[in-house]
Write a structure and sequence with these properties.
Distance between the termini: 43 Å
CATH topology: Nucleotidyltransferase, domain 5
Number of helices: 13
Order of helices and strands: HHEEHEEEHHEHEHHHHHHH
CATH class: Alpha Beta
CATH architecture: 2-Layer Sandwich
Length: about 290
């Protein structure tokens, strides 16, 4: 914690310019800064979880119990770049209902943790999930853009085409913090429920592990020759009209009763398109859906 971690983790160990030039994926830059004249730092934030035993101290037991996970835990807040490089990990924080991700981010800004406000510049971008929604105003006050998946309007059954496309763009960038959290849990000790005697040392443990990952593990995603073309295609498709939705609405296909029959690939649907792997990658604009299939 004295000689190794400070040189490999924390906002003071790396400059904002190094993050922009060496640890920002071209895909993320093109998707999120299209039309901007500045070159901002793009950071992805998310809370991780370290499970602990139930405490005999009633006050601490209540404040460490997560209603989301239905068990006691502590929450380190992870800040990574779009290549998966871990800039810093803050906390751990308690996990009761008043200490959600948005509250933790507000605390980081108010307390200027690790001189965060000095490191950041106006028009920098935080990519987050919906649990950070209440922190939007405080980020706006210091000039930080918050990119977040869209919310479904009250009474709506699904997102609009525009909101769905915005959410896909954000998710295409934000997945890297989930992978970084997964890399943290590859260390068996942090994956298990820790005894309460170890609670004072959890912050040190996660920082040591993340510093080791920064120093010796490869980036979670490397720059690709296709990043620029992929970003251009996603932005182009996100502005297109949803012709399938228009046809469903105009012909009332969502209100018709249908008789479904089992399809036999050998004869029932001879005109059904046959795609090779390259075609599917072009269709899905990534590998996640392909791996799931």
């Amino acid at each position: 914690m004295t000689d190794f971690v400070p040189h490999n983790l924390g906002f003071q160990h790396i400059s904002r310019e190094d993050v922009i030039q060496k640890h920002t994926r071209e895909l993320a830059r093109n998707l999120l800064t299209s039309g901007f004249t500045t070159d901002p730092a793009i950071l992805v934030l998310d809370g991780s979880y370290v499970y602990i035993q139930k405490s005999s101290n009633v006050t601490f037991a209540r404040r460490s119990y997560s209603l989301y996970k239905h068990r006691p835990l502590l929450k380190p807040m992870m800040v990574v770049t779009t290549t998966g490089y871990i800039v810093s990990i803050l906390g751990p924080y308690l996990s009761h209902s008043k200490n959600n991700d948005a509250s933790i981010l507000k605390h980081m800004i108010h307390c200027n943790t690790e001189e965060l406000k000095t490191w950041l510049k106006e028009d920098d971008i935080f990519v987050v999930d919906r649990r950070f929604r209440d922190a939007g105003e405080i980020l706006k006050d210091i000039g930080i853009r918050m990119e977040m998946p869209s919310f479904m309007p009250k009474g709506a059954k699904q997102l609009s085409t525009h909101d769905s496309n915005i959410s896909r763009v954000v998710t295409k960038v934000r997945w890297v913090v989930e992978a970084a959290n997964g890399r943290l849990k590859q260390w068996k000790y942090l994956e298990k429920t820790l005894p309460n005697t170890q609670i004072p040392f959890i912050g040190d443990y996660v920082r040591i592990v993340d510093a080791l990952c920064n120093k010796y593990r490869p980036p979670l995603c490397n720059a690709s020759d296709h990043d620029q073309s992929l970003a251009a295609k996603m932005l182009y498709l996100s502005k297109n009209v949803n012709s399938l939705l228009r046809r469903v609405d105009e012909e009332g296909l969502d209100r018709r009763s249908m008789l479904w029959v089992k399809v036999d690939a050998d004869g029932v649907a001879p005109d059904f398109p046959r795609y090779d792997e390259t075609d599917i990658r072009e269709l899905t604009l990534g590998v996640y859906q392909l791996r799931m299939a």
